[in-house]
């Protein structure tokens, strides 16, 4: 049985959701899954990795987070394990570490993959191609397949298992070291992690009207507010909320596009959402070609009514 090494990010003593998905994707292939963690709190999180499919967890000793020093430790572990693949979630940290690991292993990195499967003894990945216009199926001729996995595309599988935890070698200080993390004000959900995303475009006419979307997101309770590039460029919303090719890629269970026409740049960042609802007064808007459900009408009437309906359903349990 082959071995797959998974880089695991953690917070509050547990693997982050994107890493839980990566562990599940690896274990679904029937491989022996080895989780690798580093940084403060890694010991507690390592003990939780078995619940999500890891057979073993290795904690790299580090006094501070450094992506280049972490990559050296991870690449050494991949070699020691004779692993057939290395996976990480396509988060900011995953995208920071994975290319460095691939370079150290002299392998190609397949980024932002949406599917992973076995084809005989080889692993095959699927990822968006040409700004999301196509889905490419790819395999690597390198000895180790290196890939980052798009969040919310792989199921979290709680197996209830346990992982044997061991200590890896101490990491050096690294060229780049994380000094401090500042929590985001208000504790808002990240659009890249939220199961429901409510996004707005120029059809909302002005920045204050995004209060309608915030109210709808609040009604769901587990939703984040997103925005199109035009809205962010206009200064209506922060770049952290931008969905699209030059913003964040999202794959929520539900994506609601309000006043967004559906430019290719935006579609590239949300087309893998499980269910897409479009609200636009223009029946010819390109977004309707992608949407599972479309509502043609005035967003200023529809969104408040939708928020009211969601609250009513929530109240009924």
Protein traits:
alpha/beta, 2 domains, 317 residues, 7-stranded parallel beta sheet, 28% helix, Rossmann fold, 9 helices
Strand content: 25-35%
Q: Rg from C-alpha positions?
A: 21 Å
Number of self-contained structural domains: 2
The CATH class name of the largest domain reads Alpha Beta
Low-confidence parts: none
Helix content: 25-40%
Total number of helices: 9
Under the CATH scheme, the architecture of the largest domain is: 3-Layer(aba) Sandwich
Assembly classification: single chain
What features would you describe in this structure?
- With 317 residues, the protein is α/β, with parallel strands linked by helices.
- It has nine helices and 17 strands.
- The protein has two domains: 168 residues, 3-Layer(aba) Sandwich (Rossmann fold), CATH 3.40.50; 131 residues, Rossmann fold.
- α7 links the parallel β15 and β16.
- The strands form four sheets. The protein has a seven-stranded parallel sheet with strand order 7-11-6-1-4-5-12, with helices on both faces.
- It is elongated and about 60 Å long.
- 49% of the residues are buried.
């Amino acid at each position: 049985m082959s071995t797959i090494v998974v880089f695991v990010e953690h917070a509050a003593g547990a693997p982050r959701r994107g890493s839980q998905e990566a562990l599940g994707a690896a274990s679904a292939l029937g491989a022996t899954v080895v989780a690798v963690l580093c940084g403060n709190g890694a010991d507690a999180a390592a003990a939780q990795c078995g619940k999500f499919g890891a057979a073993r967890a290795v904690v790299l000793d580090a006094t501070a987070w450094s992506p280049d020093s972490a990559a050296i430790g991870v690449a050494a572990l991949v070699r020691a394990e004779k692993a057939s693949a290395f996976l990480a979630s396509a988060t900011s940290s995953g995208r920071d570490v994975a290319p460095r690991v691939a370079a150290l292993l002299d392998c190609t990195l397949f980024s932002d993959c949406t599917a992973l499967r076995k084809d005989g003894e080889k692993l095959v990945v699927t990822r968006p191609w040409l700004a999301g216009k196509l889905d490419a199926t790819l395999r690597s001729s390198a000895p180790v397949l290196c890939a980052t996995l798009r969040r919310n595309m792989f199921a979290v599988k709680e197996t209830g298992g346990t992982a044997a935890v061991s200590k890896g070698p101490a990491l050096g200080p690294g060229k780049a070291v994380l000094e401090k993390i500042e929590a985001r004000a208000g504790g808002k959900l990240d659009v890249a992690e939220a199961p429901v995303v409510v996004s707005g475009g120029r059809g909302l006419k002005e920045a204050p009207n995004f209060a309608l979307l915030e109210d709808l997101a609040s009604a769901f309770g587990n939703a984040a507010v997103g925005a199109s590039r035009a809205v962010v460029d206009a200064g209506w919303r922060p770049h952290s909320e931008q969905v699209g090719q030059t913003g964040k890629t999202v794959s929520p269970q539900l994506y609601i596009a309000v006043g967004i026409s559906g430019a290719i740049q935006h579609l590239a960042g949300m087309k893998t959402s499980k269910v897409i609802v479009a609200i636009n007064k223009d029946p010819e808007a390109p977004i309707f070609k992608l949407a599972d459900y479309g509502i043609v009408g005035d967003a200023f009437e529809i969104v408040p009514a939708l928020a009211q309906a969601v609250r009513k359903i929530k109240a009924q349990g």
